[in-house]
Model the fold of this input.
Amino acid sequence: MTYRTSLTALALALAGLVPHPSAASATSNPGVSSVQWKTCPAYSDEVIRGLGVAEDKVAAFRSLMKRLECGTVSVPLNHADPGGRKIDIAVTRLAATDEAHRLGAVAVLPGGPGNSGYLDPVLRAALRNEEMAGLNERYDIIGFDPRGVGYSTKVACSFSPNGPQEPGTLTKEAARKIYDAQVASNEKCGRSDPAFLGQLTTENVAKDLDLVRTALGERSLNLLGFSWGTYLGMVYRSLFPGHTGRAFLDSVAPPWTRIDEHAKGAAEAAERNFGRMATWLARRDGTYGLGATARQVREEVVKLVRAYDKSPKTYTDLQRPVDGSAVADLARRNSTEWVRAGKALSELRTATGTTAPATVKELLGAPMMGPSVPGAPEPLNMTMNLAVACNEDSSRAGFDTAWRAYQQLVKRHPATGRAWGVPAMCPGWPLPVQQATLKRSSGSLVLAGHLHEFMSAYDWTLQTQRAIGGTVYTVADDVHVSTTRVPKCAADVVRYFETGRIGRGCEGSPIPS
Done:
């Protein structure tokens, strides 16, 4: 879809927006898709707080929203058929405040797959802290919802619980029922709209992003990627090395997309990090009573896992029964939650009532994505999450293989292993495997790996460097995508985009005192 300059100017005027200088170069070429600008969504104070904005920053959020430009870019559903069906990609831009010294544009690549990135210019950059706000001085910050997410064109599968989630020790029979239900659910979803779902891949998102770059009139994009967004950054850089500027990728994904290997590596990292947690708890035995040595703490937690698997507890005020998987979930929390997780584990040692202990309820009763607030943008699209993962997963393990992997996982990781479940997400997915090819290039690339985290195991950062090059920036914490949240680390990120130089790493999130 093309728009002449005059039509684009009229659309901008109707939306009450002022065209950014770089937009002119895109709209002057009738063969290039442009951004269809429109008024940004309006959010209530309740929605803004639901987005994680602190009360004292609500006014600043509203001020930034007045600067934010919002629009859509039309892209082919199937990039191999550019003349075929079109879909819309929702795009936002926070223009550089120092236009005279502008260095370019930084595209924020969201996690997931399936997370929204529409408000990332505000939430992940300008509003995060003073250091990250500095990035917006000389750079436009670009956000977007990937295809299948949020304000972009999407579809929705209806998901049902994967079989009977009975509390207690997971038996082979119960696991088989869960697995079979997963197969049926995946087949139903995958066949509901294969023309669309089959086009939900990281490579297609990367191609969409390059069309967004063209529509914005940018010769290149700098990349700031988080979690799955790091893999998206790798793929974009491999496809479009000439259009990739500086790239900073935080909590680096592995250079492969096998779900079975992903579960294995994450589980190993989680159990290792529990050793750090056990040492921390042992030094505070007077507070938590879980043991005076790391070994004693580990033995106590493993005993709790087994005890609650043998005799699960159902509390009247907690939707989730507490069994061994719940105890293991508490044991794999990162250091920002050690205080509360330690308290919850301590509470479970002596809990006798019909209502959940306070900290147990606080940690195990909270929804993963936070409470749903009417009018809020979609934080995560589960259909897109499933489709991208399964379209790119070459393992698709059979039940016997998955069950053996689960048994090994629990045996090798007795404190945290029960939290994982059977590592089989994609059995029965009816669409073919599509995997991107990563390529090494000479462009500037920083891979920020967190030394102790499990969601993106540190070893994956090293594997990715061996595969595609780049500089490793080591963050000495266990907190997923924390780099831009910690002021000293965030200052390094901004300095990198301004100068191209980066140190060896930073301390990251501090361990609680």
Notes: The longest helix spans residues 259-282. Residues 1-31 have pLDDT under 50 and may be disordered. DSSP finds 21 helices and ten strands in the chain.
